[in-house]
Structures are given as structure tokens and as C-alpha cells.
Amino acid sequence: MNQILIDEKLYVTPELKRKKKIFRIEFFLSVFLLCVLSSYAIYAEYDRNKSEQVSQEILEGIEFKSGTEIVEEEVTVIVLNAIPEDDDVAQVQTILKEVPVDIPDEQKTVASDGTEYYTIGVINIPSIDVNYPILSTYSDALLKIAPCKFHGPNPNEVGNLCIAGHNYKNSKFFSKVPSLDKGDIIEITDLGDNTLKYEVYDKFIVNPDELECTSQKTEGKREITLITCTNDNKQRYIIKAREI
Question: Model pTM?
Fold first, then answer.
């Protein structure tokens, strides 16, 4: 039996050509967007790591001052049993004297890249391994570097010191702050090298425009309020703590 082979020719219609062209365009756009998103994620992580390094650099550069310091002072001593004509009747001696030191409201620290930052103290939360300088003012740019004073008095003064920090959803900055519970301890060190412990007594979530948590009505007590974003960035975690 003879076998007849028939070649079937595939006809490419204009509609099929259009669909193939659209598919190629969509494919290349998908690859391009994937590359862009991957590059952005890598850069964002690099930027966060760089900010962490700058923050720790600022922390190491803080110079704490105690309430007093020892200074040398020259005094004149009169020798009572000396002969009046003796040149040694009056002697100048150097003594050590303790004098009070003015603690500045903020301290300037210059990073290795030459940028100046102003700090007011240090926040340390041992239970979640948080240890950062507290910057004296608040802005989006400064929040990328370290936790910032958002409102209230300076560290360890009477009132409600409100500190804002980024939640990067990793281990950096205030990412672990939402895990704090009642009874956890927060340590605040001021520029006078005084460290006070604050105990968490409340935590809740608010909308960005709800600022009742920043109230200064503390009945003459020292309090701190930690503020950071929820994971979806739509609301704010609030951690309230009071001096032990």
C-alpha cells in the first residue's frame, strides 16, 4: 500500500501575529519589572544596613557628662610663721576642686561622611536587643538614621517623652517594639549619664491622626511613649511606659 504524505502548511493570520507580539512585549515587561523590583529590594536593604551603621556610629560618638567635674585651680597661701621680708610669705599652689557641669540639652555628633546629628540620649531595650541614640528632632530623613524625639521633654525629665522609630519588619530600629508586653523594661540614658528604667504598662494601636498618646498630663511623673508603624504602615503601635 502506498503511503501518501501530505504536508499541511500552517497559515499565520494577522490576529495570531498580533497576539504573539503582545505576548513578547508582556514577557519583556515582566522581566524588566522583576529586575527593577529586585534591584529596589537590594538597594533598600543596603540603605537600611547603611543607616544602621550610621546610627551605631552616632551612638559610639556620644560623650556623656556627669553632674560635676574636677578642675585645677590656683590659690594663694599665706605662710603665717614666715618672716615678713621673706619672698615665700605668699605662695601660689594648685588644688583640685569639684565644680558643677552644665549638661547640654543636645549634643552634636559628626558622622564619618561629615553629616552632623544632634542627640539627646540613648534608648536601650534589653529584651528585644534595641540600643540606639535618640535624635533631638523629628523628620522623615532623620527617622531613617535613628529613633527621634517626636514630642515632649528631654530624656528623664518630668513629662511624657515620645520617641518615634521605623518599623522595617526585620530586626532593626523599632521593628521589634510591637512585641513588647506589660512589664517589659525600657532604659533611657540622658546626656548627664543618668539611666532610668521605665516599665511598660500599656500598648495599643491608633490611627496616624490620633495624638492623644502624646499628652503631657503625667501627674508629675516621668513617662515615655514609643511610636512605630504597623506592618501595613496604615496605623501606629503605641507603647506606654512609666518610671519605676
Answer: 0.72
**Domain range for residue 140?**
45-64+104-243
Any idea which residue has 502624646 for its cell?
Answer: 214
Q: Residues 57, 133: one domain?
A: yes
Q: Do 83 and 168 sit in the same domain of this protein? A: no
Convert 169-179 to b/e letters by CB count within 10 Å (16 or more is b): eeebbbbbbbe
CB of 99 within 8 A of CB of 65? Answer: no
Give the model confidence (pLDDT) of 61-95 as tens digits: 999 887 666 667 777 766 655 555 555 566 777 77
Q: Which cell goes with 4?
A: 501518501
CB neighbours of residue 43 within 10 Å: 10
Closest C-alpha among 163, 127, 171, 128 to residue 143: 163
